[in-house]
Write a structure and sequence with these properties.
six-stranded mixed sheet, globular, about 375 residues, binds zinc ion, Aminopeptidase, single chain
Length: about 375
Amino acid sequence: MIDPVLLTRDLVRIDTRNPPGHEAAATTLLADTLSDAGFSVRVQSFGEGRTNLVARIGDEGPATLFTGHVDTVPLGTVDWSVDPFGGEIRDGRIYGRGTTDMKAGVAAMVAAAIAEADRIRERGALVLAFTGGEETGSEGAQYLVAEGKLGEISAIVVGEPTANRFLAGHKGALWLRCGCRGVTAHGSTPHLGDNAIYKAARSVLRLETFDFGIDDHPIMGKPTLNIGTISGGQNINSVPDRAEFTVDIRSIPGLVHESVRGEVQAKAGAETAIETIIDLPSVWSDPAGAIMAKMAAAVSSATGRPTEAASANYFTDASVFTPALGFPPTLICGPGDPDMAHKTDEYCETVRIAESVAIYRTILAGL
Ligand SMILES: [Zn+2]
């Protein structure tokens, strides 16, 4: 039996901040652990030190997919009061960058998979996919699905931080970079130039009243649009010939990103050129569906708490895996506290890690 808290600590001690990523050492640790337990493992490389891991056990038939990412966000600008790469265990918490998001989730999945390995060998199949590059837009997951070797997947469990709540989906993200061009001139003769900042400003104000034209999702609510950054011009005494702003759209099921982008273009106007930065669709699985209901029962029997339909605000690798694998029912459930993700002095409660192992084992036992 693998101790999931100690495995979390070992993973936290490997620096996988992204950028630059460098997940290879973490991937090797997981590959060795799973290989020793009889899983067939395969490492996919997608750049210098950048890796994904796929491990499989069981028969050739449709498999359950457990997935998580091993990269983390950077440390931020504020000093930590603990060693962010120490994995210190104190007062029922394990501290460090990536404990909550989401090395504890990965460790709990590995511990559960190894504990249930004999049972899975007798019946069913499990694939573990541990990705790199998630924090910068699910880069690793995109390489994995492009390779097309995951096989038939009947259900997906994403171990992102939910404090072990049962989440049936999350919003999508469509991030756009919008640019306006003009003609520069001396600041004292603006009539001789064409001011790009005025164009961007008009475009931004038109987008303030953007209407998605869709009813609220019963759980996720409304889609949103936010202008996150704006920049333009080089110096005070010139007419700016370039201005740029970025748009962060969080979508709900029923919205097609390509159409949304077209509507944003129409609203922003022809003088604005749009480029896509991130395009990750929303994910939603009907909680009343047979497999989702079974997984909900597993979560509530392992935690002793009732489950209710809920969704996450953040996006996950499910935006890539779920559509690419034919929309298998997708659960998001993991030990991290969603409020601790990306924070200074990040930690995960060790009792939650044990609880996640129980949840994942119950799900696997029901395959
Ligand atoms: Zn995450």
